[in-house]
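Exercise 3.2. Students should predict the tertiary structure of the chain below and write it as structure tokens, then compare their answer with the key that follows.

Predict this chain's 3D structure.
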Amino acid sequence: MAAIYDVNRQSLWVHSNSGQGKLNYTIKNDKAVFCNSNVDTNGYDSLDATSRISYYDIQDIDVRACSFDDFCKVMQFAKDSYSSFLYDSDLLLSFKEDFSDSKMNDFYQFFEEYRLECAHNGDMKLYHKIVPIVQACYNMIQITDHEISSELTEDGYFKTNIFNDECCLGCYDSYYLGDEIFDFGGTCYRVTAQYDIESSDKNPVIDVYLTDFISGEKLKGTYIVDINSIDLKCATPLEVFAYLSYKESIDDANWESTNNIDSNFKLLFDSGALNVDSLSDFTDKTLNLYTAIKDTTKKLTNSQPYLNKNIDFEIYKKNLTKEYIEKCLKLCENILMAIDSDES
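Answer key:
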């Protein structure tokens, strides 16, 4: 199985350093003594004053209108000063070619949009690497805009902690790859799929969780599905839900703000191909999707009103039109082609 059940899975939006930050230095003799490295035997920072960037060096730089080199100076000051701004310096430098040396750029807007693009593409690992850069930007803007007059040390560092690492986090739009209501054995559940916190561009990972539709209470635990590990010839319906939700989002440029109703999985579920009679069938029972779809295709081709046997056909017969059947058949054809392609 490609799905792993985790009872305590962390939300994709929860950043590891949120609310944990502190100054990287203490004040001694009106100078900043850094706690992380380069401290001599007398307890003082062994780097001389010219080796570090102080607030005096960057106080006139606005990250919304500056060069890339100046932006890096501001980010270095923020990183040296506060523990939560521990961004990857090599990652930041990798963006240098995106900016002209002579042009003033709004780096806050750039990295805020880039962060959301990472979430849209399911690259949550990169998203969380960008978060400290955006947080540092936001903090330096607050200092610039509100003229924070916290007293500085002789060498140009804030004597009190004026930074905040709880900004710039949260969920944007819905970011649900799939979100629908299903009847499993007479009980309705809301089933939701979204990217996992460990998802990356090359290795998409999907979280699937369930909510009791009547009570609104979320069921305990999350199913973590590695898309690249799914074997559609031995997969649970839950894994198929994650797979089709992910694949469908690739074809929808605005999937994060689209309410995904009447999805491909819903078509497949209503066709009876998955034969889900209970919640445990959905989460644990494996099936050969190739064989199941082949069998269902024959029944649909013969125009037999074949739906999930627990569903009263009289309620749904209006939906089982020629157009509906053709849509199901096209979906089945595409899935069969995907399975054949994976094997070749």
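Discussion points: The mean pLDDT is 84. The radius of gyration is 27 Å.
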